[in-house]
Write a structure and sequence with these properties.
The model has no long low-confidence stretch (mean pLDDT 96). By secondary structure, the chain is an alpha/beta fold. It has one domain (2-265): Rossmann fold. The protein is globular. Strand 7 (210-215), helix 9 and strand 8 form a beta-alpha-beta unit. An 8-stranded mixed β-sheet has the order 1-2-4-3-5-6-7-8, sandwiched between helices. It has helices spanning 36-42, 68-81, 94-105, 130-139, 146-157, 160-165, 167-179, 184-194, 224-232, 248-251, 253-265; strands at residues 2-6, 9-16, 21-25, 47-51, 87-92, 110-116, 210-215, 237-241.
Length: 266
């Protein structure tokens, strides 16, 4: 792990492999260590950059509010610090919001963009079911333990099949989440940023090749949102990973890695 000063924060990052640069951007409170199942394969083909967004992991947690545009500017600043002119991007959930802003406001930095389990935001986005919001509300209760909060979220983050058939990998996720649990300030900052995101009217401005990819059983971010992105971005491809949830890239990494390698390479 290395650190570099970017704008008003210090960003923690890792670099693996060699070749064309691919930047992986995590979702809400996701840390760079969570990309384990992508790194081994992608690093055989690309120079892979993983990092902690502002507010989580080993990156600085700012004291004031910030937006998705700030996190996109952080990412562009990290590229500057690493002397990378442009890269391919794979952003999941909130990371997909950041990737959209990069493609819109920093288009010269984005070669290709894979948008995972994400949305254009706004009132036209497809919202989760009420039960999902109730679960997330219970998991946000500050009086419960971190472990209880993590375990409450599992049925929202993963598909039923994965929970049933992969208990060991599920437990690895639980322990990783506990280890890197964010501060309340960092989590609140990211939540505030993503809650006001809306670029639906700007999708037509995206000019780079785009892949909208999602899990068929995603309860957190209903898969219809990926279809809406693909329809709103000229020439965008659409791929659904059957039988997976919001963490589709963790549930079926071999399939997802193959799709990403093909998309970034062709």
């Amino acid at each position: 792990m290395a650190k570099v000063e970017v704008r008003d924060i210090e960003i923690a990052y890792n670099i693996d492999g060699s070749g064309e640069p691919v930047v992986l951007i995590g979702g809400f409170t996701m840390v760079k260590e969570a990309w384990e199942f992508q790194l081994a394969e992608l690093a055989k083909h690309f120079r892979v950059i993983t990092f902690d967004n502002r507010g989580v992991g080993e990156t600085t947690s700012p004291t004031g509010p910030f937006g998705v545009a700030d996190m996109a500017a952080d990412t562009a600043g990290l590229l500057d610090a690493l002397d990378i002119d442009a890269a391919h991007f794979f952003g999941v959930s909130m990371g997909g919001l950041i990737t959209q802003i990069l493609a819109l406001d920093h288009p010269e930095r984005v070669k290709k963009a894979a948008l995972g389990c994400t949305t254009h935001g706004g009132r036209h986005a497809v919202q989760p079911e009420r039960e999902v919001m109730e679960i997330l509300g219970k998991a946000s209760d500050p009086t419960i333990s971190v472990e209880e909060a993590v375990r409450l979220r599992l049925p929202v983050i993963f598909a039923e099949q994965f929970i049933r058939e992969e208990p060991e990998r599920l437990e690895e996720f639980v322990q990783l989440s506990i280890r890197y649990w964010p501060t309340s300030e960092g989590a609140a900052g990211q939540l505030g940023a993503l809650s006001v995101f809306n670029v639906k009217k700007r999708l037509g401005e995206i000019r780079c090749p785009v892949l909208a990819i999602t899990g068929s059983e995603d309860r957190m971010m209903p898969p219809e949102n990926s279809r809406l992105l693909a329809e709103g971005i000229a020439g965008a491809a659409h791929y659904v990973v059957d039988g997976t949830g919001h963490s589709f890239f963790l549930e079926k990494p071999d399939e997802v890695n193959g799709v990403l390698i093909d998309f970034f390479s062709k």
